[in-house]
Design goal:
Order of helices and strands: EHHHEHEHEHEEEHH
Number of domains: 1
Number of helices: 8
Distance between the termini: 19 Å
CATH topology: Aconitase, domain 4
Oligomer: single chain
Number of strands: 7
Shape: globular
Largest sheet: 7 strands, mixed
CATH architecture: Alpha-Beta Barrel
CATH class: Alpha Beta
Length: 165
């Protein structure tokens, strides 16, 4: 994963839990796509409609805390978010995101330097460039990179076992 991309930033704070990402009452809808208009609605009802493919979420500590609902990272990915950069992630959310092919990047400093609407450049497994400053990022292990590149764990296992996508 030597990918480089740019995206417009949406900022969120600390402790964005899975009930904020997708409230419980919308989990009964038939598909993840049906749920996407309600993403982040308790916090910012307008946000889901404003997100464009390739945008990036930058958040604070403990992103994805709360219940372990797998729909949370699925919905973020379905909105077209290219990656989420946060100071830290809840463990279960981190694994659910990787398993669904959503790139997560931990960085302790970017949230304090970026403003909503900024465009940042992400050099995956290397650094983030924001307003001319470099923010180093720790490389993900190759097995996680392979899962993200494949689009999720199921697709990665199908690829590994020669079953195609």
């Amino acid at each position: 994963m030597n990918e480089t991309f740019t995206g417009r930033v949406w900022t969120l704070g600390d402790d964005i839990d899975t009930d904020i990402i997708i409230p419980t009452e919308y989990l009964a809808l038939k598909t993840v796509q049906d749920m996407t208009p309600y993403a982040f609605s308790p916090l910012r009802p307008e946000l889901a409609a404003r997100i464009q493919p390739g945008d990036i979420i930058v958040a604070g500590r403990n992103f994805g805390c709360g219940s372990s609902r797998e729909q949370a990272p699925e919905i973020i990915k379905a909105l077209g978010i290219k990656c989420v950069v946060a100071k830290s992630f809840a463990r279960i959310f981190f694994r659910n995101a990787i398993n669904n092919g959503l790139l997560l990047i931990e960085n302790a400093d970017l949230q304090d330097a970026v403003s909503e609407g900024d465009t940042i450049e992400v050099q995956v497994n290397k650094k983030i460039i924001c307003r001319g400053n470099d923010y180093p990022i720790v490389s993900l292990p190759q097995n996680l990179v392979d899962i993200i590149d494949a689009g999720g764990l199921v697709k990665a296992m199908r690829r590994l076992n020669g079953l195609g996508d």
